[in-house]
Each structure stands twice: as structure tokens, then as C-alpha cells.
Amino acid sequence: MRDTVRFGVNYTPTRGWFHHWLDFDLAEVRADLDSIAGLGLDHVRVFPLWPLFQPNRALVRPRAVEQLVALADAAGERGLDVVVDGLQGHLSSFDFLPSWTRTWHRRSLFADPDVVAGQEEYLRTLAGALADRPHFLGMTVGNEVNQFADRPHPDPDRVTPEQAQAWLERMLAACAAGAPGRAHVHAEDDAVWYRDDHPFTGAQAARLGAASVVHAWVFNGTAQRYGPAGAATELHAAYLVELAKAYAVEPGRPVWLQEVGAPAPLIPPERAAAFAEATLGHVLDCRDVWGVTWWCSHDVARELADFPELEYGLGLLTNDRRVKPGGAAVARVAAAVRAAGPGPGPAVRTTAVVADVGGAARGTRRSVCAPGGPVLETWTRLTAEGVRPAIVLSDLATDPAHLSSRGITELVPAGR
């Protein structure tokens, strides 16, 4: 870990989107990575498509793994560290699951012993292929795989929180077996923080893996409720960083803002730069932030069909690799942080909003933290008053050692 916050981007290839693995062209990848490096960023998160890399439970394609290593090496040559997501999983409204888990071979992604063993071998293989690369930071188990376990997915594989935790522990162990000593994490969408009774929990997010990972999207009702320039909209990513910290039991546990973006029309294109600068400014006022990885590097090509409209324009660069205003804004913030160098970090947040989520282990009342809920409303109001609030779970609000470890001296009930 470094004292200086890191800035990177989720790599979306300009030619063919993630389908580029079917027609892998290293020259095109290098051109994409050149345009990313030109923004002054320091890492990329990359996405092999699981069905293409492991089309059969007993086959992880060697050629696909070689192409992943070639992409990672090309990134390293440009000064970009690499994080690899394993189980894709779900990307930009599309599901990518191998045929040996669906239809005639329908088996639980989280509980079937053969499927889980196949996933372990896949993650071990990818991590092991990159284990000797100094620019390989680690694996992310998958991208928002929790979506497959609950509504609103149309065909979920239901699990209990205990089963979800056991699955996460096995997947993280598989990553560590392939690449010991690297920073392996798991990443879910905001259902872990906001949805009552969701089987993947905030406690798992904040206590398993090398860092707590946050995906902060304002199309979840935040921008709809508070507007594109509303305080809660521009504070949403920082709020989720603080909410992740509330669930942590390890003092100073790093938080990685792994996805954040400016989805149009909820954030109009003419406001993308202002949104980026405001969002990042608030996040940089949080302690223990490891880094920010913007979604995404390049726009999705318009000739590709059936994406939700907001997915086409999320890039920091256009599909022909021109820097957009939002990209220039992220580059400016990254350059300013890099120029400032390591420092003491933001001041401790001594006031905390108390969140009763129905117990950290199960989160039966997590919706109190969602947009419109009393925790976010109180936290936003206090921020507007200049208080700089943290969040503490009611489970831990009576633990003097926990409060002391975080420097919290004043508690404010949610809704007050």
C-alpha cells in the first residue's frame, strides 16, 4: 500500500468491447493502453470473459491465458499496474456465464461442489499465470457476482449469508494459492450496503480480502432523487467509502473505490467534468482510501447493439481515443495528488452518524442507508454543515475500543 491515493481506470477495449478476446489484437490493446497512460493514470482493471477462458469446467484455455498475460505485460510496459477480475460474470447489463452452469447443466454458482471447484481452478490459473509479474497487483474474484444471488436478477441462485461467506473465502483462497502475497479482493454492487436481507453483506465486503471495495453508482436512485448537482449525488462515493469503514473491524483497513462514473443523462455530459472533480474531492477527504478506478476507459462503440443508453458514453476517452472533458478532469485530479506526494492524509472524522442496519452479519435493515434513508439524509445534512461525519454501526457504537480506534467522540442518531 502507498500513502498517495492511486488513480486508475477500468479498461474497456475500443475494438469489440470485451468481445475483443474473440479476436485479440495486441496492437489495438497497446494503442488503447497508450491513451490511458497519456491521462497520467497508474493502473488498469481488466476483464477476461469467463465463458471464453473456461468454456468447459475442465478446460482453462492456455491461449486465452497467454493473451491475458500479454495484455498485462503491455500495461506494465506503459507504467500501468494491473488488477484482473476473474468471474465475468456480469458486465454493463450482460451476463457472461459458461454453459456448464446454465440450462441443461444448471447448477448453483455458489453451492454446487463441482462448479465451485471449477471456479477455484480458474482463479488459481489466472493468478498463477501473473504471479511473477511485478506490475500485477492481484485478483478481484469477479465483477458484482452477488447479482446472481438475489433479486432483481430474473433467475437467481439463492444462497444464505453463511453460504455466500464460505464461497467468498474459498475464492479468495484460490487467488492466494495462485499468487501468494498479492492484494486479492472481492467486489459487489451496492446491494451489500442497501438491500435488506441480501445474502452478500457489508460485513463480508469490509472484512474479507485485502481491502473493502466500493462500487458507487448514482443511477441507483441517488441522482434521480437528489439531482445531478445535488449534494448527496456528488457525495455518494465518499458516503459509501465511509459506510464501508463503518463495517470494518480492522483499524485503517484500506477502501478501494473500484467503480464510479458519470452516467448520462442522469449526469448530463456537460456536467461530467464537474461531477468527477466534486466526487473525487469528497473521496479524497476520506481516510484510508487506497485508490480510485474510474468506469471506464473508452466509450462503447455505437455499432454494438442492445446496451442501455447510459453505457455507451461512460468513457474518459471516446471510442477513437480522444480525451473527453471528464477524462481531463480525472487526469487533473490525479496529477495534483501525485504532485502533492505522500502526506498525513485527511483529518480524523470525530462525529459519526449511528446506523442500525439490523446487525452487521445479516443486515436485515440495510435500507436505512439507501438513498432517501435516514442515514444518508443525516450524513449529507451534517456534511453540508461542515461537520465531516463518519458512520458507525449501532452494533459497534457502544464499544469504546472501536470508537477510540477511529477517533470518534460524538454520536448522532440517524434521522436527527
List keywords for this structure.
alpha/beta; TIM Barrel; 3-stranded parallel sheet; 13 helices; globular; GH; hydrolase; Glycosyl hydrolase; hydrolase activity
Query: What integer value in Å does the Rg equal?
Result: 20 Å
Q: Kindly name the structural category.
A: alpha/beta
CATH H level, superfamily name of the largest domain: Glycosidases
Distance between the termini: 37 Å
Organism: Streptomyces antimicrobicus
Protein name: Glycosyl hydrolase
GO molecular function: hydrolase activity
Keywords: Hydrolase
Describe the structure.
This protein is α/β, with parallel strands linked by helices. It has helices spanning 26-37, 50-53, 62-77, 113-130, 161-178, 191-194, 202-207, 222-226, 231-247, 272-283, 325-340, 374-384, 400-406; strands at residues 6-10, 43-46, 81-87, 90-91, 94-95, 136-143, 185-187, 212-216, 255-260, 289-294, 351-355, 390-393, 410-413. It has an eight-stranded parallel sheet. The chain has 13 helices and 13 strands. The mean pLDDT is 97. The protein folds into two domains: 6-340, Glycosidases (TIM Barrel); 351-413, no CATH class. Helix 10 links the parallel strand 9 and strand 10. The longest helix is centred in the first third of the chain and has 18 residues, at 113-130. The protein starts with 5 loop residues before the first strand and ends with a strand. The protein is globular. Keywords: Hydrolase. GO terms for molecular function: hydrolase activity. This is Glycosyl hydrolase.
